[in-house]
Amino acid sequence: MSTATNHIGRKISRIRELRDMKQEALAQALGTNQQAISAIENSETIDEEKLVEVAKALGVTPDAIKNFSEEAAINYFNTFNEAVSSSNFGNHNVCTFNPLDKLMEVVEENKKLYERLLQAEKDKLAYLEKLTK
């Protein structure tokens, strides 16, 4: 189990997956082929020079790859989600008005419009009755 935590290739693979990058894309960024990336990801160790190249292609530091752990990644994303939810972009939006008050204003406005429409129809009916007499 200790080899799994220090397996550089698996860490590279997991970071690549988290960045939503295919092996082919990483291969292209490194100027190599997909089979070479597969070999790197199956390697328990990697030379420092190659690690620096891979880290640059993944947009992370070599230390980030060396120290990568699933738990740290989960904690990072949970922290990000907590930060977003505590801002106005999360689920904790605060209204500066009472939505029920606004709803009641709209209801009252609709009543007034309906009464005006009803009065216009009554006036039209009265005019037609006057014309027919």
Characterization of this structure:
The protein is an all-alpha fold and 133 residues long. It has 2 domains: 2-86, 434 Repressor (Amino-terminal Domain); 95-133. Helices cover 75% and strands 0% of the residues. It has 8 helices and no strands. Helix 2 packs across helix 4. The N and C termini lie far apart (102 Å). This is XRE family transcriptional regulator. Pfam families: HTH_3. InterPro entries: Cro/C1-type_HTH (IPR001387), Lambda_DNA-bd_dom_sf (IPR010982). Residues 12-65 form the HTH cro/C1-type domain. GO terms for molecular function: DNA binding.
CATH fold field value of the largest domain? 434 Repressor (Amino-terminal Domain)
Largest β sheet strand count, sense and barrel closure: none
- SSE sequence, one letter per element: HHHHHHHH
Shape call: rod-shaped
* The CATH H-level homologous superfamily of the largest domain: lambda repressor-like DNA-binding domains
Oligomer: single chain
Name given to the CATH architecture of the largest domain: Orthogonal Bundle
Q: Span from first to last CA?
A: 102 Å
Q: Give the overall pLDDT as a whole number.
A: 83
Low-pLDDT stretches are none
Count the DSSP helices: 8
Strand content: under 5%
Look at the helices and sheets and give the structural class. mainly alpha
Level-1 CATH class name of the largest domain:
Mainly Alpha
Domains (count): 2
Q: Radius of gyration, Cα only, in angstroms?
A: 33 Å
How many beta strands in the DSSP annotation?
0
Q: What percentage of residues falls in helices of 4 or more residues?
A: over 70%
